Amino acid sequence: MVNSGGPKKKGGTGSSDGGGKRGFYLILAVVLIAGIATLSYLAIRPAKQAVFAMDSTVVLVPNQGHVIGSDSAPVEVVEFADFECPACGNFATLTEPDVRTRLVNTGRIRYRFMDFPLDGHRNTLSAHLAAWCASEQGKFWEMHDVIFQNQDRWSGYATSRPDGVLSGLAQQIGLNRQQYDSCVSSRKHLGQVRSNYDEGMRRGVGSTPTFFIGTKKVATVISYDEFKRYVDEAVSQARTTTAPAGTKSGAKTP
Fold it and tell me: What's residue 241's pLDDT?
């Protein structure tokens, strides 16, 4: 009887350990499945509409952005961008130089930059105001370029005090430092930034960069070849729309 009871006790203990292990692995499996489900949801859920919390009492001014290129260009390209957005930085440093050289400087397009600071980019407003203050001294595009080129130095991932870095960049491009610093500290261009942001919201912008090339909305980063294809389509459409009466479709116009 003793021998018979011994194995039963041992068997009971082994059964308990096995049940514990099975329970542990079951819990682990549930956690993993829940984690995968959460990641899948985050990957496919619709992007949250961009919202930037700025003082609602700010006096707005007519939105205008910053323009480069000829007023007689057949097509205007409007970019809504966030200075702290990595994708915007990618476009500005890799693709935009070709866009300016081949399309803006040749008179094919006029290019307009519009502020669209995104919620969650804690230093972006400082950069937008810095660019506007540079525009007071006629150097918006120079500041635009160095801001994007040095995004890793002043962005929220790099520092909690971006103004010092941005001020150094302003000096680097030859701005009057005293005038620039006074402009930034006054936040005098906040109303303009807010107006441009509101214009983007009115147009349905929800991410950056978003381009309006003629009448086409392109809400993603694109290569130069893709950009040019959209421009060619817009130019063709513009010429068709403005063709003199009696001009055959497809005929060349001056």
Answer: 76
Residues of the chain scoring pLDDT < 50 = 1-16, 31, 35-52, 245-254
pTM above 0.85, yes or no: no
Q: Please give the distance of CA 232 from its chain centroid, rounded to a whole number.
A: 24
**CB 167, CB 180: distance < 8 Å:** yes
List the beta bridge partners of residue 77: 111, 213
Phi, psi (degrees; rounded to nearest 5) at 59? -75, 120
Structure tokens at 99: 């866009």
DSSP the chain: -HHHHHHHHHHHHHHHHHHHHHHHHHHHHHHHHHHHHHHHHHHHSPPPPP-----TTSPP-----EEES-TT-SEEEEEEE-TT-HHHHHIIIIIHHHHIIIIITTTSEEEEEEE-PPTT-TTHHHHHHHHHHHHTTT-HHHHHHHHHHTHHHHSTTT-S-HHHHHHHHHHHTT--HHHHHHHHHHTTTHHHHHHHHHHHHHTT--SSSEEEETTEEE-S---HHHHHHHHHHHHHHHHHHHPPTTPPTT----
Question: Cβ atoms within 10 A of the Cβ of 183, count?
Answer: 22
Give the position of tokens 């960069």. Answer: 209
Distance CA 89, CA 123 (A): 14
Q: What is the pLDDT of residue 128?
A: 97
